[in-house]
Amino acid sequence: MELEDERLVHMRQAFAVARRSFAAGGGPFGAVIVKQNQIIATGMSLARSLHDPTAHAEILAIRSAAQALKRIDLSDCVAYSSAEPCPMCLSALYWSRIPAVYYGASWRDSTVFGYEDLYIYEELRKASDSRAMRSQPLLQEEALAVIAAAAREHAYDSFLPCGWQPS
Residue 3 above 70 pLDDT? Predict the structure, then answer.
């Protein structure tokens, strides 16, 4: 099968998961994680039914893929989502090191139906002390001591997702 055909098949599978999600009382979103052209995980929007605001399709698919592969580095996988990932899901995709995500509807398309990712994108652009949600550091030195101890203990490799390097 041609690469383009594979992408279309996987995208349609994400749509099928989205339809099942909606039919089961969840949100109209679905995601699949693919490794070597095989679906290794799916996720549907269960935020309302699980009473969990983080139970988005992409998050659940990433969790399932990481469990299936027994690792958090999913850099050899690709994600397909029925809609453009929200800021939380996009961040999770970066942290899992998935190098590519294909999506159906854009977040701008979704605003017509009441999904307002734009607000969060705008908040993220602001300095932390200018956001609607209060955000301020407390006990920074103690926090850094915990992080430094863990880094020494585990000799972590870079946590930088998708090959990103700081400037």
Answer: no
How many C-beta atoms surround the C-beta of residue 31 within 10 A? 33
Chain centre distance of CA 9: 21
| Residue-wise pLDDT tens digits, 14-71 | 999 999 998 888 888 999 999 999 999 999 999 888 999 999 999 999 999 999 999 9
DSSP 105: E
Q: What angle do CA 12, 119, 42 make, to 5 degrees?
A: 25
What Cα–Cα distance (Å) separates residue 28 from each residue in 15, 45, 90, 91, 142? 9, 7, 17, 20, 43
Task: Indicate which residue of 4, 6, 58, 116 is catalytic.
Answer: 58
pLDDT at 116 over 80: no
Q: How far apart are CA 36 and CA 26, in angstroms?
A: 29
Q: For this structure, is 58 an active site residue?
A: yes
